[in-house]
User: Fold Thymidylate kinase from Candidatus Accumulibacter vicinus.
Amino acid sequence: MIRANLYSTALNALECAGVTWVLMRASPDNFLDAIEIDIYIKKNQRKQAFVTLLSLGWGCLHDWLHEPEKACFAYIEQGQLNKIDIHFEVVSGGVITVDSNWFEQGIRVSPNGVRIPSESAWLLHVLTHTILTKQTLPERYFDRVRAALDDPTIVADVRSHINLVSFVDNFNALSAGDAITLMSDSAWVSGVRSVLLKETQYRRFIRDFIRRMEWIILRPWRRDFGISIAVIGVDGVGKSSFISEMQEQLRDIGFVVRTAYMGPWDRSIFPTSRLLEYFGANPLDFDQIQAGPVSLDKSSLTKKWKGYVKRYFYYFGTWIETWARFLRLVLPHRLLRRIVLHDRDFLDLLTGFRNIPIRNNLRLRQWLAQITPRPEIIIVLLNDPGMIYQRKPEYPLDVIEGAVRRYRDLASRYGLHIIITDQPTDVLVRDFIAENWRSIYAAVSGVNRAAPIE
Assistant:
């Protein structure tokens, strides 16, 4: 479904549900092709609007605690982000800039049947919205703004309905001079923004205070801040390519994405882990023989006891290393509501060590996995062992077959997300995002429950 059809279906559904929506800023002639649409509805129609869009599969991204005057809905289709912002007040940057009663009184119908505000309300909204949320006036508004300011009736109407006292003189300057030049000057716009925000600072004080308190007190204890997605699987199955493609596609949509290596071997950041690597600690069984790049010969009883000690040090050292990586590489970005893509996870250790099976201490490994930070989504990449062998010939085919089988069993046991890498990587990633974008978007937007639409 292309973007225009997606928006058209949603807006028609709102009409059928009795929701009277008004296009706020965009031109009624071509607004269906925009990435984001802003519409205004009356407060008493809020519940019906929410129910209608949710029933069509749109995801609610609204944060009721911080912005009670608006709601945001999103839908990702074919890798494209589509957004509908629903306003219950004419608000920009958290500031109510236009009186809602005046805005509603001037609603009219355009020649193509779309409800739009009066030219006066539109002009005031566009100017204040640009000043509070943009750097300069978008070029698509130039002609319409210039025409509105040339009309004395519109200018007088706007001047009589400005509810921000500090904006009166600035509006007079815009109507008397070259408004397009002024609104295209980022320094002038920034200066006016500072004045407007200073006037409204007391109105915004409680909201900002709540945000800061939530950040300091509640944020570290909530489970809805950001999201981690881990990608695990047999060496050679295509994890690096998958993570790189997912990072690119998520960024193209508009998400902030970071990556972190979280595997139970290599790339240590904790001093004890490097020390264990120096002494050759690993979890392999003593009777392991040559199998791929890793081998362990039989040893004497004394060496076996030393091996036992190094093995347990390895398990607990790896657990500490995983926590250290989480605190350093993952948590800071999660607190900022970002997406963190994990290259491997502690669960890899339940299937073996670098594709080599491990028989010892399964319960210990399972217990450590339970008390290790676990991503919200864990993807297990699988493919035909023969295909993997072509990419990673340093492992014997039977070793790869066993590793694939153990990863499949792991996914079944823990309910992990299996993806078969038998298609182009970009197709696999696009399909995954299409299936999971709602939970991803809810996590990065801070929405962890249904909106209170009663």
Q: What stands out?
A: Confidence is low (pLDDT under 50) at residues 289-296, 447-454. The first helix runs from residue 3 to 16. The chain has two domains: 3-219, 222-422. The longest strand covers residues 70-77.
